[in-house]
Specification:
Blueprint lengths: L2 H42 L1 H21 L1 H15 L3 H27 L1 H7 L4 H14 L3 H16 L3 H22 L11 H25 L17 H33 L3 H38 L2 H35 L9 H17 L1 H16 L4 H25 L3 H27 L3
């Protein structure tokens, strides 16, 4: 590589890291919110833990679909800001907020009437009742949670990633304090268990939204965008543009998360110990995946900015730097899994757990398999981010649906149950889906920016 090329790579890699590291930290903190809920409910009771976990799964399924609008705002704002079009920055963000509120209101009845739905899906009466109560409360947090995601995308696209990090980190500590009050019953509040976790979650989302809105609306450097001025006025053209970009993103994210949900269901057919090992391995891989998510978001912003400047060569250079960094992270993660896999899995279980001798080796084996799909998983996440940067989302949805549902899930079933490889076969099936997605998505991106 020539000296100018090396300097160019260093410059672009630095830009990716400046944007990406705070976003990685933000994603890690968001993940910590889920972990603290799980731990604190586990301290309260197994029943409340199960109900909370079931409710959280339902919540995040709907939340994932709704985040498509926030993910659409990021490249639209980055492109418009690079083109010095303040009006388009405001229009995209405000209509992203409108669509998020509309979506939250549309799905609210599902949360309010969750108990009969859970019973209809075969859940035990006690779990369905408690899980339904959890969802009836946490459903009111969908709107603020999605608005927070839109504002995070808006601020990240404008390079304000530090505030995104610190607000999310502070939310973790607020969540711990509120869980202590509402789950366990402190400061004169009755113990509420899973219902208390739901109350805490809604309050945390409202706290985060308040801080984000205050920062976005009143920071002098951001006042030029007049984000909340005449907020009540609809902008139908901008709304159609955000919806056209955001809905496929949400559906693609749902397709990916659906493959992992299906894997958990199939692993459950192999028994409780296999499911426990699977769940632990997924928790570990999800934590490391947050790094790829942050880098992918940074790539979306940088590619979007280059697109706004009509700088095709700069766009390609930013994409190359982001991909190389993502692959370096994947390689490092593989090494961690191989060297410390057993210790990572063992940290999730008590030393006195009688099933530890079975679950730890199985979970460690699954992590060894997970090491093999780090390049594929990181590649598909990065490719999705790059394609969002050039505002290409419809065909990526098709690729995701085919890769995960027509290849990944059938391959998992065939290898696990027909070929008899059980849990390991199931994970190799997921590798197949992720690998096809990564290759197809990266090919599409490079073809799009080749001309």
């Amino acid at each position: 590589m020539s000296a100018p090329a090396v300097l160019g790579f260093r410059s672009n890699a630095r830009a990716v890291l400046v944007l990406g590291l705070p976003l990685i930290g933000s994603h890690m903190a968001q993940f910590a919110l889920h972990v603290t809920d799980t731990i604190m409910l586990g301290w309260y009771s197994v029943t409340d833990l199960a109900a909370g976990a079931l409710g959280a799964m339902v919540f995040f399924t709907f939340f994932t679909l709704g985040t498509g609008y926030a993910n659409a705002v990021m490249p639209m704002v980055a492109t418009s800001a690079a083109a010095d079009d303040d009006t388009e920055v405001r229009r995209a963000t405000r209509m992203g907020m409108w669509l998020s509120i509309g979506y939250a209101l549309a799905v609210l009845p599902v949360f309010l009437f969750a108990r009969p739905i859970l019973l209809g899906l075969g859940q035990e009466v006690e779990i369905a009742t408690l899980g339904g109560a959890y969802l009836a409360i946490v459903g009111f947090g969908v709107a603020p949670a999605l608005l927070v995601m839109v504002l995070k995308s808006y601020l990240a696209a404008l390079g304000r990633t530090q505030v995104v990090l610190w607000v999310t980190v502070s939310a973790v500590f607020v969540n711990i304090g509120l869980n202590w009050v509402f789950i366990f019953g402190n400061l004169g509040v009755p113990a509420m268990g899973a219902r208390g976790a739901a109350v805490a979650s809604v309050l945390v989302q409202l706290f985060t939204l308040g801080v984000m809105l205050a920062y976005a609306a009143w920071l002098p450097a951001l006042r030029r965008y007049t984000l909340l001025a005449r907020f009540w006025r609809p902008d139908w053209q901008a709304m159609r543009q955000v919806n056209a970009l955001g809905l496929p993103i949400g559906l693609a994210l749902l397709a990916e998360s659906g493959m992992f949900a299906a894997s958990a269901i199939m692993m459950g057919w192999l028994g409780a110990q296999a499911l426990a090992a699977h769940s632990i391995a997924l928790e570990i891989t999800a934590m490391f995946f947050m790094i790829h998510m942050g880098l992918s978001n940074a790539a979306t912003v940088l590619v979007g900015r280059a697109r706004g400047r009509k700088d095709l060569e700069g766009l390609r250079a930013a994409a190359r730097a982001a991909l190389i960094l993502s692959m370096a992270v994947a390689g490092s993660t593989m090494l961690i899994y191989f060297v410390a896999g057993e210790a990572l899995v063992g940290a999730f279980l008590s030393p006195d757990d009688p099933e530890r001798a079975i679950i730890v080796p199985l979970g460690t084996t699954l992590l060894m398999v997970a090491a093999l799909f780090q390049l594929a998983d990181g590649g598909q996440a990065m490719a999705m981010g790059l394609l969002r940067g050039i505002q290409d989302t419809r065909m990526p949805l098709v690729i995701a649906a085919v890769s995960y549902w027509l290849i990944g899930i059938p391959a998992s079933y065939a290898l696990a149950f027909l070929a008899g490889f059980e849990g390991v076969g199931l994970w190799f099936g997921m590798i197949a889906g992720l690998s096809v997605a990564a290759l197809a998505l990266l090919t599409r991106f490079w073809r799009a920016v080749r001309v």
